[in-house]
Amino acid sequence: MAPLFPQLPVLSSNPGYTEAHAAYALVRNYYASKAFSSGNTQTVSVQCWLARMEAKKAKPTPIHDIYMAMNNVPVNIGVRDLKELVRILLLPQIISWVRGYDLSTVDFTLRKEHWIELVAQHPDVNAIAEDFFVTKANPRGLQTRTFSNKHPAKLYLGIDNPTYNTILAHFDELDSPLVDDDEEPPMSSRTSRTKVSSYYANWAEPLLTHLQTSGNPGLTTSPEAAHIKNALMLQVQPKLKAAKSVCSDFLIYILPGASWKTLIQNPRIFSDVTKGLPTHDVIFYNTKAQPVSGGFKSALPGRSKNALFPDSSPSKAVCLKQGFHLQSGDKVMYEGVSQVKFLCSELNLLGWGDTMMDLVYVFMERSESELGRPPFEIPVMRFVSAGLAISQSNQQEAFMVEEWIDPETQGPFVKYIHNNSGRPRDFERADHQIRAEFLSFCQHVQYFKTNGAAYISDFQGGLELLTDPQIISDP
C-alpha cells in the first residue's frame, strides 16, 4: 500500500517538541484539506487518548488529560498507519508531559475500547472498519452492508504500568533537591505570560492581563500612519475549513497576545488562531437556554471543566458566542465554515482592541516618568481573554469562547461609548461615569499614537472587563 502521509518526514526516535509539533501541523492540515474533497466519502472521526490500564480496573485510565481528535480519517486505514496517526496527534502533548524523558525507550501500543490491542495483519487494512459497517437483510432477504460514521472511533495509545512508573520516577529526580546545581531542568513548553505595563501592577487590585509581551512593551516612537493603515488593510477573513460536529468536547484555540510593536510587524497575528496548538476541554452549556442577542452575535453562558484562561482568571465560567445574519427578518445562525470565518474575524478585532488598549497604558506609564503620577485613580480595564472552540462530535459546531463578565464582580453590563458616536454616555453611577470618560481619553490616545489611523469605537462591558470592540480605521 502507498504510505498514508507521503510528504511526512520520518520522525527521530526521540523527537523534540518543535519536530513533533511540525509533524502534527502537517497531519492536521492534510486531513483538513480532505474535509471538502470529492474523493472517498467513507471517512470517520477518531478520538484518541494516552492511557494505561491499572490493576483491577475495568476501563483504561487517561494520562495527564492527553487527548486529541481528528476528522476525515479513511475508514479502511490499516493498523500501522492508524498507530502512526494517533502517535503524531498526541506526541506534542506527550513531550510536554514527560519533561525530557527518552521516548525511544517507550513501547506504545494501539488499543481500542475494552483495551483490545490492534495488531497489523496482511494486508494491513480495515483496522477499525468493522465498527462502522452494519449488516442488514433487505426486503428480499439479501444481506447488505451499510456504512455509518455516526459515532467516532475511540482509541488509546497505551503504555504499560512499569513504563508509567519509570516516568514518574524521572519526575521525582527532576524535582529532587539533590539534583546537581549545574543542571537545569527542561523548560516548560507553556510560555509564561507577563504584564503589559507597570500600570497593571500599580493600579490593579490585583489584576492580571493576558497579553504576552517580550522585551520593550511598545515602540519608542509611533509608527508611520501609512504602516498602521497597511496593517489594518491586511485584515481579511481567513480561509478555514472547520470540523463538522457538535458536543461538549471541544478543541480550543486560544487567542494569543501581542505588543503594539509585534502587531505592526506581524499584522495577521490574530487573523488565524488555528495556527496555534489547541487545548482540549469539556464545556457544559444548555442548548435550550434562550440566548442573549446583539446586532450580529448571540451569547450563552457556559462552564468549562478546567479554567481556559488561567493567566487572566481562575474562573471556569465562560460566555459562548455565535454569529448570525438576518433572512426575511429572522435570525439565521451561520453554519460550518461561514461560522468559523465570522468568529475568527471577531477574534481578530478583539486581539487588535486588546493591544490598542495596552498602547494607552504604555503611553501613560511613559508620561508618568516625565509628568509624575496623577493624583486620581486610573481605571484598569482590558478586553476579555477569548478563543475559538470547535466541537469534536458529529454536528461540529463552533463558538467564540470568552471570559465570563460576572455581574457580581463586574457590575451590570453597560455600553460606555456607542459605535456611532464619539461622545461617552452620561451615567448616574460615579464608577461608570469615570470609566466612560477614561475610555474617551483612550480613544484620543489611540488616535494620537496611530497618527490618526485608528481607534476603538465601541466600548462595552463591566467595570474592568470589556468585550466586542469595533475598530475605526482611517477616521
From TrEMBL:
It holds the Pfam family Alpha_kinase. InterPro entries: a-kinase_dom, Kinase-like_dom_sf. Residues 366-473 form the Alpha-type protein kinase domain. The keyword Transferase applies. GO terms for molecular function: ATP binding; protein serine/threonine kinase activity. It comes from the Eukaryota. Keywords: Kinase, Serine/threonine-protein kinase, Transferase. This is Alpha-type protein kinase domain-containing protein. The lineage of its organism: Eukaryota, Fungi, Dikarya, Basidiomycota, Agaricomycotina.
